Amino acid sequence: MSKRNQRRAEFYGAAEAKGYYGLDKTGIFGKKDNVRKFWEDISIKLLIRPYIENLMSVNQKIRILDMGSGSGEGFDLLTHIPSNSKSIYNEYVLLPPQIDEYVGIDINLDAIEQGKNNFKDFKGVSFEYGDLEEGIDKRLLQKNAFDVYISTYGSLSFLNPDDFKQLACQVFSHAKNGSLFIFDVHGKYCPAWPVYWNEKLSMQPYTMSYLNPSREAPQSDTEYFNICYWTVKDLKFYLERAAELANVKINILSFTDRSIFVGRHIDTGMFSTKALPIRFLINRMLDHDYTGGVESLKLDLSHLDQYRDINPEAWERITDYQRQWNRVLILLEALRHQDDTRVKNFLENTDIELMSEELKFITWLYRNSDRFPVVDFWSNVIGPQIAVILRNIEMSYIEGVGCGHGLVGMIEIIK
Ligand SMILES: C[S@@+](CC[C@H](N)C(=O)[O-])C[C@H]1O[C@@H](n2cnc3c(N)ncnc32)[C@H](O)[C@@H]1O
User: Fold this and answer.
1) Ligand 1 atom 9 nearest Cα
2) Which pLDDT score is estimated for 208?
3) From the CA of 267, how far away is ligand 1's center (Å)?
4) Quick check: CB of 169 below 6 Å from ligand 1?
5) Atom 26 in ligand 1: residue holding the nearest Cα
6) Residues of the chain under the 50 pLDDT cut
7) Cβ(298)–Cβ(326) under 8 Å?
8) I need a surface site. Which of 61, 144, 307, 347 has the fewest CB within 10 A?
9) From the CA atom positions of the chain, what is the Rg in Å?
10) Ligand 1 mean position to 87 CA, how many Å?
11) CA distance linking residue 327 with residue 251, whole number of Å
12) What's the pLDDT at 342?
């Protein structure tokens, strides 16, 4: 073999060893599936965008502490917030060189090693071992205050309420005026785990078995650990006690429900009486290769009826979202069957003020499908667009009630 061919063989050998030639399951399963990228990440980014923009308008560089950082997903999230500007040269609100320091803390040494490797070429980025149950390490507290104290995708749910309060107290004491505390914990009234709706604030079992690519029924060796499922009221209470302890004022900017129907466990049914393959189907809709399956997206939540009186506010939110969600699917069905009378009636009589423009747009898209230069109009255009509309309905609810897989809190510290 010539030297050049040998080098090429080595290159492809290395690529194969890294898994680049394995079966392509990207997007449908796993930690960074389509729903995480195009639904969950986007919801969080749009929620925090105005506050990060605000920070960038008064600081040239900012400092970030990521608690339960995994391998630096928070860094990625913060540096890929789409800019509001229509200019293609102004991609993101915050760029890596605008970060003075990013410190990721995690209890998992493998995640830390992965993070160090992922970001080895980035200046000012470091990862440290730390158990947040013990609070933030003293060495880190000797550093200058951070502008953003962030924790994404449920890391702080691993703490019991008192440890959460102690951690929040440390954050509030260490922060400076205007610093942000952004976190995402598990919402108690998520439709994926009605078994917990009646429980008092306490640690309850959870599992991440959904990351197992086999998608088979739960195995007997499924690993469970305890996490805290939070209500808005309890969170407020513990945050206010933490602020009192730290002797600072806080401004609770928002609590928002993330992933009400697309949370990971909606598909497993492990904490409910019924599994609904909603996340799987939305993952497929967001994929540009798949067509179909939408009939099963229509939500039937009758199995939750027995829980309806536990929290009327959460119930009202869940059923309102279900109604709006299903209306999108009814329209889609009419379009697919070319039932023009039904489409017309639907559009004229829809009482969903907020959605009417988006639904008219979908109808226009559908009726103009011949004008799109794509091979598969359904999977390339309509499928992803419907998923985005369903996401936008969720994002239109301003005040969270704790009915999402994630409950995202945004706190400003005032000193
Ligand atoms: C669901 S993952 C989220 C990781 C990352 N923030 C993300 O956005 O993907 C939860 C993380 O919290 C970490 N964690 C759990 N308990 C912890 C503790 N007591 N102290 C520090 N990290 C912890 C885990 O090791 C894991 O990396």
Assistant:
1) 73
2) 85
3) 22
4) no
5) 70
6) none
7) yes
8) 144
9) 23
10) 36
11) 37
12) 77
Q: How far apart are CA 140 and CA 164, in angstroms?
A: 18
Q: Which amino acid is at 51?
A: Y
Q: Looking at this protein, which amino acid is placed at residue 412?
A: E
Sign of the torsion angle spanned by Cα atoms 74, 131, 183, 102: negative
Give residue 93's identity as a one-letter amino acid code: V
Domains of the chain, each with CATH number or no CATH? 25-269+400-414 (3.40.50.150), 278-396 (no CATH)
Whose CA is closest to atom 25 on ligand 1?
Answer: 108
Are residues 75 and 104 in contact, defined by beta-carbon separation less than 8 angstroms?
Answer: yes
Q: Tokens 């924790």, residue?
A: 151
- Residue in the block written with tokens 């959870």: 206
Q: Which residues of 379-399 are buried (b: 16+ CB within 10 A; e: fewer)?
A: bbbbbbbbbbbbbbbbbebee
Cβ neighbours for 90, distance < 8 A, ≥ 6 positions apart: 83
Structure tokens belonging to residue 71: 């391998």
What is the per-residue pLDDT for 200? 92
Q: How far apart, in whole angstroms, are the C-alpha atoms of residue 118 and residue 160?
A: 30
Query: Does the beta carbon of 107 lie inside 6 Å of ligand 1?
Result: yes
Ligand 1 pocket, mutate which of 158, 207, 405 (most atoms under 8 A from CB)? 158
pLDDT of residue 289: 79
User: Is residue 25 helix, strand or coil?
Assistant: coil
Ligand 1: residue of 33, 102, 107 to mutate (most ligand atoms within 8 A of CB) is 107
Q: Is any ligand 1 atom within 6 A of the Cβ of residue 184? A: no
Q: Are 135 and 111 in contact (CB under 8 A)?
A: no
Structure tokens at 40: 């969950």
What are the tokens at 310? 């536990």
- The whole-model pTM stands at 0.92
CA–centroid distance, residue 72 to ligand 1 (Å): 10
